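Sharing a chain and its predicted structure for anyone who wants a worked example. Both blocks are below, sequence first, tokens second.
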Amino acid sequence: GCRKLTNVIIPNSVTSIGDSAFSGCYSLESVTIPDSVTNIGEWAFANCSSLESVTIPDSVTSIGEWAFYNCNSLESVTIPDSVTSIGEWAFYNCNALESVAIPDSVTNIGYRAFFRTKWLEDRRKENPLVIVNHILIDAQTASGEVVIPDGVTSIGEQAFLECSSLKNVTIPNSVTSIGDSAFSSCNSLESVTIPDSVTNIGDHAFANCSSLENITIPNTVTSIGEWAFSHCNSLKSLTIPDSVTSIGTLAFSHCSSLEDITIPDSVTSIGLWAFSDCSSLVDINVSQNNQNYVSEDGVLFS
């Protein structure tokens, strides 16, 4: 194996560093990546626990999932302005990582990309809402009433995951997307205001928000993800706006207090078990103009 490898110079004939290429090279201290490389694959340097520094050239456009996972000696990283995407868990558990430079070119930061790094811990101390390039990437220390500042364009995956003290959230009209599991398991969350700039509510976005009593979905939203409001046990009624075309699998399952729901004529797709185990649901109203679904005596038919 590569356990005794301490230094690597990659020639400029290489264009891609493959998945797990140097994973588990525990003694690797430094690596020189040439400016011919455009992609750093998944797990490429994972578990390189002695890696102290790495220079990412300005030819790289994406950093793969788990790429530098568990690089415990890595203290700083500069991401060049050629990079547009940082994968999920990319620098997860790099607990010595204190200095991170992220350029404006980065438009996608995967969930928990910097989780368990000193950099993220320090940012949380400055402000519980950690925002990078208009993306709210982490808010897991937020509590009480939260107003997301104007200018944020997306709420990242798992941003507020399991914020048990979060009660109310106001989302500005600059936000267009609420990521997967963004507010999942915020069991004290009572109300949230979604502006009419939002077009997508991700999978599991509000799942297990057991105190959420009411929510207004604006008429700009076109899709409601899988499990989006599953196990929202306090939710009693809901009107789906006529902008929505798709309701995901299990989207409102186990909403035990949900009594009635209105489905507009715009909905063309309702996933399996979307309203399963809604034990209080007595009335499903489907628009008479809907070409795909009807309701009879409160029962939904396709």
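Comments welcome. The longest strand covers residues 166-170.
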